[in-house]
Design a protein that fits this description.
By secondary structure, this protein is of the alpha+beta class. The chain has nine helices and 21 strands.
């Protein structure tokens, strides 16, 4: 089938995991598909099999109707025959070549004038103009990754594979390159499969997300949807949802479901039929906190769920603080350091945890 990457394969490791991948990716509609999941879930193995750097034990990989790998017939095309680009985590540049030399390396069999034109075009596109004669050791980490990306893109491949390309960079370089990647991908209109375990990267760059866990793709959809509406409690935890609590369904009122979680009651939206028990998933960003002394000031506040709680722990995470709360069940809240300072929050403080009903996602207990 034209315009489609199709794969359905299994890779087994002796005395180790079994990795399975079954999905299709359009190559006619350029976009970024994110392969997301925790370390050890199999993301890099899938990427290496697609690139031809590793070989599945069974199944097939087809690009636009052409077989790249077919275990039934014994076919396995080497990487150089797959017409794709690959960006490694560490860039994997040739240290003895200049930035221009690394960019031009894939352009074998192309006239010199055309090679020079493409190198100049790619240098300008990726913000490398003026750095073409520097070797990798003379470039910053972000600049090296831009060269690696340009080398993967310069032949206009049918597909670009990227394996955690921003992980090794410091935060300023990572943010700057991430902001440029989206623009570059749109300008070149080349489909990308990006492996990452970074939530911000997945949301900012991804059009579609394949969520991997335990060696298999467990959920497929737009990144924002997958992050906010995981299908299982295990996926919710892997996606960084801080609170997953088992709750009993008490009934419905005003289009909302009334729940009992621990000793606290919650209201949450749900249009689907539910059994007696559900898992209530609450992201830390969806929880606001105020001092309990101010509770009377919030009688008419918009959050449906206002729970008295005690702070049992605090962890600073960059500009945020993760609060561990006891509100009749264990609850996590993510608040800014400024909010913590303004409220003078500390462990054992009594607070008011406010949760909008729409911030609660329900998963039926099966």
């Amino acid at each position: 089938m034209s315009g489609l990457l199709q794969c359905d394969f299994t890779r087994r490791f002796a005395n180790g995991p079994v990795i399975k991948a079954a999905f299709a990716l359009s190559t006619e509609t350029p976009g970024v598909t994110v392969l997301f999941g925790p370390s050890g879930s199999g993301k890099t193995t899938v990427l290496r099999c697609l690139a031809g750097l590793d070989e599945p034990d069974e199944g097939f990989i087809r690009m636009n109707g052409e077989a790249w790998c077919d275990k039934a017939s014994g076919l396995h095309l080497p990487p150089r025959k797959r017409a794709l680009g690959f960006v490694f985590q560490d860039g994997a540049l040739f240290p003895n070549l200049s930035a221009a030399g690394n960019l031009a390396y894939p352009l074998t069999g192309i006239p010199r004038a055309e090679r020079q034109r493409r190198v100049q075009e790619m240098s300008e596109l990726l913000g490398l103009a003026g750095l073409e004669h520097r070797r990798p050791g003379e470039l910053s980490g972000g600049q090296r990754q831009r060269v690696a990306l340009g080398r993967a893109l310069i032949r206009r491949p049918r597909l670009v594979l990227m394996d955690e390309p921003l992980t090794a960079l410091d935060r300023p370089a990572r943010d700057a390159l991430r902001n440029d990647l989206r623009r570059v991908f749109r300008e070149l209109a080349i489909p990308v499969l990006l492996v990452t375990h970074d939530r911000d990267e997945a949301i900012l760059l991804g059009d579609r997300m394949l969520m991997m866990q335990d060696g298999e793709i467990q959920q497929d959809g737009p990144p924002a949807e997958v992050f906010t509406r995981p299908r299982t409690p295990a996926l919710a935890e892997a996606l960084g949802i801080g609170t997953v609590v088992k709750a009993r369904v008490l009934g419905r009122e005003g289009g909302l479901v009334r729940l009992l979680a621990g000793t606290a009651e919650l209201l949450a939206p749900c249009d689907e039929p539910l059994g007696e028990w559900v898992h209530a998933c609450i992201r830390g960003e969806g929880v606001a906190v105020e001092k309990d002394d101010d509770a009377h000031a919030h009688a008419d506040a918009s959050p449906r769920n206002r729970l008295r709680a005690t702070i049992t722990g605090m962890e600073r995470i960059g500009p945020l603080v993760r609060l561990h709360l006891d509100c009749g069940f264990p609850l996590e809240a993510l608040v800014t350091t400024w909010a913590c300072e303004d409220l003078a929050l500390k462990e054992s403080d009594n607070v008011l945890a406010m949760i909008k009903a729409t911030a609660i996602h329900l998963i039926p207990v099966t």
